[in-house]
Each structure stands twice: as structure tokens, then as C-alpha cells.
């Protein structure tokens, strides 16, 4: 019976896997990756529940409860950092559960998945940090060649240099430092480990937030500005934000014959000849968007002001607050922009424009630093506790050694 069910669920999964892309081709939004991932997850969960039903146990309810906790938190408010932590907690509990189920069933599929996961983790442990350093140096070179040598473009290089110095010193520290001093040096790796967890949670929720599937019921789309070339020309990065909004504008227009209005948001910088929003409007007009469907917000200087001032313009134009809106920006900036929308009391989720792969590491690092600064008091307290713990340990080790 077990083999028959495995074959059936495998056939059902394969049918869905090949059907989903064809199904999505018939839709206005042709993206199929999210639905493929969802279909795999559903089939795998059904299979795991069947395996446990064979054992007459219900331990799958433990990871399921953590999944439900994440889903409840996420759909109640998508724009929260804690959602990344909750999802990773579900993954940790889920992987532990699958490990226990593997021991209980010796199921071939679970054995294969465990083998792949084990090899990946082993490679990560053996060369993960060194591979990361090599990748960061390579990425830094590419970014500097294509984007210039500004400080914002040097983040991957600075991180690579810092990690290189850490690896060298860490290799020799146990040989040249007494034990109590090594404990003091331990402040650095523990702090790095803490921030790596924070970054992983941030990256997790940033990726999950990319899967927004907004309905074609929007009244407005806010397009966030990002600076102009020579103070007057829309750069490619900003152009992709506008084109993402136009893509949704046309899709909703085709689906409902009721297109949303585009709100171009961006003020005039000190080195710019015109407000960003006016240049963005001209760009959209050249792409065939009617002028009556474009609003401009010309006073904002940052993303928070983008959200606040755009909200004011929308409320005036709509004649109330019961509107539906979303915003467009580049995918790396999507989640932090969502946080600013929340701070502005603007009920709007975002859709992200694609960004060149080489630009993403540097961009996500910049976003992460900005996120950390938004919650710097919390991080300072935790880093202070880490430092205090290691200083007390070092003092205890020093006096114990001195005493004996």
C-alpha cells in the first residue's frame, strides 16, 4: 500500500509540475515559480502526513503549529522583521521533525533529502566562510567596474577585507594570546554570529516578501524615486521601478478595464535640475501612460517621506482613506520600503522590480545596515551583553591563572 501511495503522489506531483507553467501562461501574471514551490510543499506535506499516519502518530502537528504561527503573523502584518525569525524557527523544528521521522521509517525519499541536506551542510561548514570571502572579492570587483567607487558600492569589499583579517587573526590568536585574552577576542566572533543570524532572518523575510501577489483591485501605485542622472534623466534602476508599475497598470487595465493611477514620488535633490517625480512622469508619458492617470509628489527627500506625502496626495485625490494601493521599488529595497509604509500608516504592500544579480549583494548589505540602524538600541544592548559576558569570563580566567 505504501509503495502504491508513493507512486500516486509522485505522478500527481509531476502532473502538477508540468501543468502549472502552462496554466500561468494563460494568466496576465505569468510568474509560475511561486506556484511550483507551493505545489511541491503541498505534495510533500501530504506525503509526510501519510507516512506518519502509517505509524499511527501525530507528531507532524508540532511543526504544523509553528507553520500556522508564522502564517498567522505574516498575513496579519507582512511588514515585520519577526516574521523572518518565525519562518526560520519553523524550518528548524521541521528539519528536526523530518530527521526523527527518517529514523522511524527509513523512507527512501527522506534518506535522499537528508543526504542532499547533509552534503550541503558539510560543504558549508568546511568551506562556507572561505567561499563567501572569495565571492565577496569577486563581487566587489564587478560592482566597482560597473557602478563606480562610491562608498555605497564598496560594502562587499569592506566586508571581504574584514572577514579576511578575522580569519587570519583567528588562526594565530590561540598561539599568540593567553587564554584570558582569547576570551576577550571571542567578543568579535560571537558578535559576528549574532549579526549573521539577524542578517539571515532579514534576508529570509525579504525573499518571502518578494512573493506578494496583489489583486487587480488597486486604486493607486506609488513609484518610489531613487535619484536622477545629471540631475534630469531617469537611470536604469529607477526606470525598472516605473516599468514594473506600468506592467501592473496594464495588467489591471486588461483584467478589469479600471487601471490604477500612478503616483510618482520624489523631490528635487540639491544636485538635480527638476524633481525626480517630474522626470518619472515624463518617462511614463513616453511609455504611453495617459497624463490623467499620473499624479506627482515633489517634496519627499527619503523613502519615509515618499510614503507620507504620497499618502496625503492619494487621500486628497480619492476623497477619503478607503483606497487600495501598492508601491513599486527594486526588489532589494522592497521590504525596508514596506517598513516605511507601515511607519507612515499607509496600508500598502510592494512589488519589486528585478535587479542585476551582481548588484544584489552590495544592495542587500546596504539595506541590512539601514535596518540595523533602525533598531540600533536593541542591537547595542545585545552586543553589550555579549561583551560583558566575555569580559567577566576573561577576568575569571585571568585571576584563576594568576592565583594558581
TrEMBL record:
<keyword id="KW-1133">Transmembrane helix</keyword>
<feature type="transmembrane region" description="Helical">
    <location>
        <begin position="82"/>
        <end position="103"/>
    </location>
</feature>
<dbReference type="InterPro" id="IPR003848">
    <property type="entry name" value="DUF218"/>
</dbReference>
<feature type="transmembrane region" description="Helical">
    <location>
        <begin position="380"/>
        <end position="400"/>
    </location>
</feature>
<feature type="domain" description="DUF218">
    <location>
        <begin position="219"/>
        <end position="368"/>
    </location>
</feature>
<keyword id="KW-0472">Membrane</keyword>
<feature type="transmembrane region" description="Helical">
    <location>
        <begin position="181"/>
        <end position="203"/>
    </location>
</feature>
<dbReference type="GO" id="GO:0000270">
    <property type="term" value="P:peptidoglycan metabolic process"/>
</dbReference>
<protein>
    <recommendedName>
        <fullName>DUF218 domain-containing protein</fullName>
    </recommendedName>
</protein>
<feature type="transmembrane region" description="Helical">
    <location>
        <begin position="150"/>
        <end position="169"/>
    </location>
</feature>
<dbReference type="GO" id="GO:0043164">
    <property type="term" value="P:Gram-negative-bacterium-type cell wall biogenesis"/>
</dbReference>
<feature type="transmembrane region" description="Helical">
    <location>
        <begin position="35"/>
        <end position="51"/>
    </location>
</feature>
<dbReference type="InterPro" id="IPR014729">
    <property type="entry name" value="Rossmann-like_a/b/a_fold"/>
</dbReference>
<dbReference type="GO" id="GO:0005886">
    <property type="term" value="C:plasma membrane"/>
</dbReference>
<dbReference type="Pfam" id="PF02698">
    <property type="entry name" value="DUF218"/>
</dbReference>
<feature type="transmembrane region" description="Helical">
    <location>
        <begin position="57"/>
        <end position="75"/>
    </location>
</feature>
<feature type="transmembrane region" description="Helical">
    <location>
        <begin position="6"/>
        <end position="23"/>
    </location>
</feature>
<keyword id="KW-0812">Transmembrane</keyword>
<feature type="transmembrane region" description="Helical">
    <location>
        <begin position="109"/>
        <end position="138"/>
    </location>
</feature>
<dbReference type="InterPro" id="IPR051599">
    <property type="entry name" value="Cell_Envelope_Assoc"/>
</dbReference>
Amino acid at each position: 500500500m505504501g509503495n502504491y501511495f508513493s507512486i500516486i503522489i509522485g505522478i500527481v506531483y509531476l502532473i502538477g509540475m508540468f501543468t502549472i507553467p502552462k496554466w500561468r501562461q494563460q494568466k496576465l501574471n505569468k510568474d509560475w515559480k511561486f506556484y511550483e514551490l507551493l505545489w511541491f510543499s503541498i505534495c510533500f506535506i501530504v506525503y509526510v502526513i501519510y507516512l506518519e499516519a502509517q505509524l499511527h502518530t501525530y507528531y507532524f502537528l508540532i511543526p504544523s503549529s509553528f507553520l500556522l504561527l508564522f502564517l498567522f503573523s505574516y498575513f496579519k502584518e507582512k511588514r515585520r522583521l519577526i516574521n523572518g525569525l518565525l519562518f526560520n524557527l519553523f524550518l528548524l523544528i521541521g528539519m528536526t521533525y523530518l530527521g526523527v521521522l527518517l529514523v522511524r521509517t527509513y523512507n527512501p525519499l527522506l534518506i535522499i533529502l537528508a543526504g542532499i541536506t547533509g552534503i550541503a551542510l558539510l560543504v558549508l561548514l568546511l568551506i562556507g566562510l572561505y567561499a563567501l570571502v572569495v565571492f565577496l572579492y569577486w563581487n566587489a570587483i564587478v560592482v566597482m567596474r560597473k557602478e563606480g567607487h562610491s562608498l555605497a558600492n564598496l560594502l562587499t569589499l569592506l566586508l571581504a577585507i574584514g572577514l579576511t583579517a578575522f580569519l587570519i587573526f583567528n588562526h594565530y590568536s590561540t598561539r599568540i594570546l593567553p587564554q584570558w585574552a582569547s576570551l576577550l577576542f571571542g567578543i568579535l566572533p560571537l558578535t559576528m554570529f549574532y549579526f549573521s543570524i539577524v542578517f539571515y532572518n532579514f534576508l529570509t523575510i525579504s525573499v518571502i516578501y518578494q512573493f506578494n501577489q496583489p489583486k487587480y483591485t488597486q486604486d493607486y501605485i506609488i513609484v518610489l524615486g531613487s535619484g536622477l542622472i545629471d540631475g534630469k534623466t531617469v537611470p536604469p534602476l529607477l526606470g525598472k521601478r516605473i516599468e514594473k508599475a506600468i506592467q501592473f497598470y496594464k495588467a489591471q487595465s486588461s483584467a478589469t478595464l479600471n487601471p490604477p493611477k500612478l503616483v510618482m514620488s520624489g523631490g528635487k535633490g540639491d544636485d538635480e535640475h527638476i524633481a525626480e517625480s517630474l522626470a518619472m512622469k515624463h518617462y511614463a508619458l513616453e511609455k504611453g501612460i495617459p497624463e490623467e492617470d499620473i499624479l506627482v509628489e515633489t517634496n519627499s527627500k527619503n523613502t519615509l517621506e515618499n510614503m507620507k506625502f504620497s499618502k496625503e496626495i492619494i487621500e486628497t485625490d480619492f476623497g477619503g482613506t478607503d483606497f487600495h494601493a501598492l508601491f513599486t521599488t527594486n526588489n532589494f529595497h522592497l521590504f525596508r520600503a514596506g517598513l516605511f509604509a507601515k511607519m507612515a500608516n499607509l496600508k500598502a504592500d510592494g512589488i519589486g522590480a528585478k535587479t542585476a544579480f551582481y548588484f544584489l549583494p552590495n544592495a542587500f548589505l546596504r539595506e541590512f545596515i539601514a535596518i540595523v540602524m533602525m533598531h540600533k538600541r536593541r542591537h547595542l544592548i545585545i552586543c553589550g551583553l555579549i561583551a560583558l559576558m566575555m569580559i567577566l569570563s576573561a577576568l575569571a580566567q585571568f585571576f584563576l591563572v594568576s592565583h594558581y
